[in-house]
């Protein structure tokens, strides 16, 4: 769950804040757990929702522009070269809006309607933010790849 | 794990690498949760006590104020009493505006519906990792009347219960066990309690470091204040508005001789009202620095005894009768002789004096979160006060009687409702000291309110050349609204 929080947070300190708040909320809400699914899944959802609530309270999503989705047909074949740490840093470097939508859609499995409802934005905005997040991540991956390649060549 | 048909390559790799990623939970975080949970058990009681005390004190002050205002008669000190007819109540100014806005934050409650398509990791049993854990636990029943050692009580199959018979204690025990690696003691909250005893869930799960969900953590180097520290690291700028009503107690500092000393002691503060706006900047944890602008009005019942000369008139009538020689009717002539004797009598006069001021507070404020958004706060600091205007009667040393502020140049008296802007006769600048205690509530969206007591030690509004020089202790309550950015 710490990784989940770090994916949504802008800093480690913020992630710890999210996680602590989430555990306290779990403590409060556990009696509402319906036994209809895995406890881990329920806990994960509470953690994600707590992070979203905290982020929303900081008004990160107020100024999300609704643009046309960025068409991106990138085939990235360099992913396997990067470890968890590098990928986490790339996500962490994204603007809050991109980061949140990408996390929700790509990693946590929410669809755009759910994201729109959770963040109080339109589905179009969600799609746009996702496309931009992907484009930013692609650039970051390519830059990182070039850096690694240069490092190998200079050896 | 959910795999979308149109899955983007970047999504795929990030999900593959990060969805199952694990990282140790920082050690202090558990202590933050623990302290928060313990505080929740204790502080609701404190909160109710503080609220009750604040209400009682508020009622006492309100009733005192009511009685004080309604009791407008003064003891007659002499046979001759002259009530000043210009006695008027405190003006109903903008001080009467009540801040009644209730700001209610809408806190969204998480849905408990299970997401079926979240990922397959959520759905699959976590037997694989749990199988490594040693379990000495013979059954799942939590004995709530004694500490439960979960160190070796990890269920071998966490998700096996679907029957709905699992107690909330067991669930919470399970959640904590998932995320802890060493002993943590958490009191079971009221919501989780199923007995009246106060059981403690003791977890020791060093063997669960590699648990499925978090990757585990170890405890140690705990920082009890970490939980609060985390909350305090955000929302650094605040704005607020407040309204205060106080009942001052006057402490005469000096007086002139004779009649003026007596007059000094008969000046009785009535009320102090203030309203203001301000902004604060959080500088460290719960500590913030506040400043703002406040307008206050201070009323005092002013009674004095005065001596005045009274003329007593006595008239005697002398008759002179003239008898004419011719025997006609006598002529009676009356002579009136009036004698004036002057005596000195004491009279009692009373008036309500009103002062208006602009105040600039500079407070250090400490806010301590206690329970579900509720907080207690304490503040102290100087208040720079600029006395702005006055109406009423002043008593100067050397004057036999109070001087009304709006005496015209020719000595005639103007309207008693007029304010006079203070000038060289009075202290325009004063430095007061403020202290306050309050309780309040702050929503996650940043809106909040607070109510509490405040106390100010004030320099008297009038200068040393005035007989009524004094210090004032003003105690009352205030209500306020806050918004945190």
The CATH superfamily label of the largest domain in chain A reads Winged helix-like DNA-binding domain superfamily/Winged helix DNA-binding domain
**Sheet bearing the most strands of chain B, described?**
8 strands, antiparallel, barrel
Number of helices of chain A: 7
Number of helices of chain B: 7
Regarding quaternary structure, what we see is: heterodimer
**Structural class, from secondary structure content of chain A?**
mainly alpha
- Residue stretches of chain B low in confidence (pLDDT < 50, at least 5 long) are 67-165, 187-234, 421-425
Explain what the structure shows:
- The complex is a heterodimer of chains A (155) and B (485).
- Chain A has helices spanning 2-8, 12-29, 39-57, 84-93, 96-107, 112-119, 123-153.
- Chain A is mainly alpha-helical.
- In chain A, α1 crosses α2 (12-29), α2 crosses α3 (39-57) and α6 (112-119) packs across α7 (123-153).
- The radius of gyration of chain A is 17 Å and the shape is globular.
- Chain B has helices at 9-18, 27-70, 120-123, 127-130, 168-179, 226-232, 259-265; strands at residues 148-149, 184-187, 200-203, 237-254, 267-284, 287-322, 331-371, 374-391, 393-394, 403-404, 420-421, 429-442, 447-459, 469-484.
- Chains A and B meet through α1, α2, α3, α4 and α5 of A and α1, α2, α3, α5 and α6 of B.
Quickly describe the structure.
The complex is a heterodimer of chains A (155) and B (485). Chain A has 155 residues and is mainly α. Chain A contains 7 helices and no strands.
What distinguishing features does this structure have?
heterodimer; A: 155 residues; mainly alpha; Rna Polymerase Sigma Factor, Chain: A; 0% strand; globular; B: 485 residues; Porin; 8-stranded antiparallel barrel
């Amino acid at each position: 769950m710490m990784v989940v929080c770090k994916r949504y947070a802008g800093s480690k300190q913020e992630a710890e804040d999210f996680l602590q708040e989430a555990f306290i909320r779990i403590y409060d809400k556990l009696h509402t757990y319906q036994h209809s699914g895995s406890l881990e899944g329920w806990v994960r959802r509470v953690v994600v929702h707590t992070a979203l609530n905290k982020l929303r309270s900081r008004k990160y999503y107020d100024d999300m522009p609704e643009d046309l989705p960025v068409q991106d047909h990138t085939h990235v074949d360099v992913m396997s070269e990067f470890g968890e740490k590098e990928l986490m840093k790339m996500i962490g470097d994204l603007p809050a809006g991109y980061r949140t939508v990408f996390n929700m859609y790509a990693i946590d499995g929410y669809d755009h309607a759910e994201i729109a409802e959770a963040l109080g934005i339109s589905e179009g905005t969600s799609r746009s933010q996702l496309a931009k997040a992907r484009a930013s991540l692609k650039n970051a991956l390519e830059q990182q790849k070039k850096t690694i390649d240069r490092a190998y060549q200079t050896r | 794990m959910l795999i979308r048909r149109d899955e983007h390559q970047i999504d795929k790799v990030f999900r593959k690498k990060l969805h199952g990623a694990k990282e140790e939970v920082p050690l202090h975080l558990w202590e933050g949760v623990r302290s928060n949970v313990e505080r929740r058990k204790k502080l609701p009681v404190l909160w109710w006590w503080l609220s009750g005390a604040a209400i009682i004190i508020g009622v006492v002050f309100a009733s005192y104020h009511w009685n004080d205002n309604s009791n407008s008669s003064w003891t007659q000190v002499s046979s001759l009493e002259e009530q000043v007819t210009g006695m008027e109540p405190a003006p109903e100014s903008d001080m009467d505006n009540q801040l009644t806005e209730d700001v209610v934050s809408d806190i969204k409650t998480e849905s408990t519906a299970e997401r079926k398509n979240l990922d397959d990791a959520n759905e699959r049993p976590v037997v694989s990792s749990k199988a490594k854990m040693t379990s000495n636990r013979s059954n799942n029943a939590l004995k709530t009347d004694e500490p439960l050692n979960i160190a070796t009580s990890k269920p071998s199959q966490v998700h096996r219960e679907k029957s709905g018979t699992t107690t909330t204690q067991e669930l919470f025990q399970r959640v904590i066990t998932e995320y802890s690696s060493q002993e943590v003691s958490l009191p079971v909250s009221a919501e989780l309690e199923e007995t009246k005893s106060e059981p403690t869930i003791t977890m020791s799960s060093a063997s669960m470091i590699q648990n499925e969900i978090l990757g585990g953590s170890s405890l140690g180097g705990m920082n009890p204040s970490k939980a609060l520290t985390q909350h305090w690291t955000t929302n650094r700028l605040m704005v607020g508005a407040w309204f205060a009503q106080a009942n001052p107690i006057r402490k005469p500092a000096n007086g002139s001789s004779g009649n003026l000393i007596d007059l000094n002691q008969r000046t009785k503060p009535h009320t102090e009202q203030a309203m203001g706006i301000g902004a604060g900047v959080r500088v460290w944890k719960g500590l913030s620095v506040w400043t703002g602008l406040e307008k206050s009005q201070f009323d005092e019942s002013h009674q004095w005894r005065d001596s005045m000369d009274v003329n007593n008139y006595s008239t005697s009538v002398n008759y002179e009768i003239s008898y004419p020689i011719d025997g006609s009717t006598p002529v009676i002539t009356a002579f009136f002789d009036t004698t004036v004797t002057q005596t000195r009598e004491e009279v009692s006069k009373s008036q309500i004096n009103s002062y208006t001021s602009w105040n600039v507070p500079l407070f250090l404020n400490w806010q301590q979160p206690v329970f579900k958004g509720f907080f207690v706060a304490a503040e102290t600091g100087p208040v720079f006060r600029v006395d702005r205007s006055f109406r009423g009667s002043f008593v100067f040393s050397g004057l036999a009687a109070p001087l009304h502020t709006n005496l015209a140049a020719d000595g005639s008296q103007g309207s008693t409702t007029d304010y006079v802007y203070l000038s060289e006769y009075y202290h325009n600048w004063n430095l007061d000291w403020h202290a306050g205690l309050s309780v309040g509530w702050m929503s996650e969206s940043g809106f909040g309110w607070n109510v509490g007591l405040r106390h100010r030690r004030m320099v008297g509004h009038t200068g040393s050349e005035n007989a009524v020089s004094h210090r004032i202790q003003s105690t009352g309550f205030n209500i306020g609204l806050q918004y945190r950015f």
